[in-house]
Amino acid sequence: MIRVIHISDFHLETTVLNDWEKFTKKALIKTINAQQPQCSVSDTFILCTGDMINKAGNSYGGVLNALNRFNETVIQPVLEETGLSLDHFILLPGNHEVDRRADDDIHAEGLRAMIEKKGQSLINEYTRSLMDGDYKDSKRISEYNDFIAELYKDLDNIQISPLGVTFTYDTSEGKLGVAAFNTVWNAYDHDDLTRGLAIGEPQYQFCKDNLEDCDIKIAAMHHPLDSLKFEKATIQNWVYSDFQFLYIGHIHETDSFYKSTVYGSLLVNVSPSYTADIRS
């Protein structure tokens, strides 16, 4: 039996770390270990759909420092206490992993305005250059990418691009593939969902191709599908056709539902904020 433990929106801060050490870390580790041997560690996965840190890691001196702190205080202790391997702790970026200061307001606003004007054609052209390593006006994601490249550098079952990352595994239920999509390369402000975010066909195709021979396919992203304002006729529909499961974060409220369309069906799971809403 495959088991995916979905967490999201950790928002690393001092208060959050205190709650993690006192309450939630023990609960998570207990949950994982209680299911063994019914569900082995080789069939257990933790999927974190973004916002590991808070506000670009301001409290820790930046994105990279904060993500390293997340690795030291969250990822590594969980792996040590459960026997899970590093590649079974799956990460993807949320808007709080974005460093807005890396792109000036004029260039950031210009990119968004051009996307609103030209739509999908510009998205695909721009993400094609991003996939080639030219960050242009999306330097905001570069520190997150540096962290991921270092964290997973020795793992052959993880394929990393400047946008999407794929994970593949041999499990008791067949070959499992996870596509971790980057929906934050154009995230910049509080009105991101209103103005529209995007994945881009080059990123999507990279992930799809890497999972071609997988029996079970999971799509994961920080933002909900309907935030892909300019990709309603393409990627929103393709996800229903190409994947069986979709995991998202950002909303801070838990939900799970099954939806069928003419393109296919998806079991959608939405994670609440893992620690920030512990007292709500």
Describe the protein:
With 280 residues, the protein is an alpha/beta fold. It has a seven-stranded mixed beta sheet. A hairpin with a 2-residue loop joins strand 9 and strand 10. Helix 1 runs parallel beside helix 2 and helix 2 packs parallel to helix 5. The model has no long low-confidence stretch (mean pLDDT 93).
List the helices and strands and how they pair.
Elements (H helix, E strand, L loop, with lengths): L2 E5 L6 H21 L9 E5 L14 H20 L6 E3 L13 H14 L1 H12 L10 H10 L6 E3 L4 E7 L2 E7 L11 H4 L5 H10 L5 E6 L13 H8 L2 E4 L6 E7 L2 E7 L10
Helix pairs in contact: 1-2, 2-5
End-to-end CA span: 32 Å
Strand content: 15-25%
Structural class: alpha/beta
> How many alpha or pi helices?
8
Write down the overall mean pLDDT.
93
Q: How many DSSP E strands?
A: 10
| Fraction of residues in H or I helices | 25-40%
State the major sheet: 7 strands, mixed
What order do the strands of the largest sheet run in, or round the barrel if closed? 4-5-6-7-8-10-9
Provide tags for this entry.
seven-stranded mixed beta sheet, globular, 280 residues, 10 strands, 35% helix, three-stranded parallel beta sheet, alpha/beta
Provide a short characterization of the protein structure.
The protein has helices at 14-34, 63-82, 105-118, 120-131, 142-151, 192-195, 201-210, 235-242; strands at 3-7, 44-48, 89-91, 158-160, 165-171, 174-180, 216-221, 245-248, 255-261, 264-270. The chain has 280 residues and is of the alpha/beta class. It is globular.
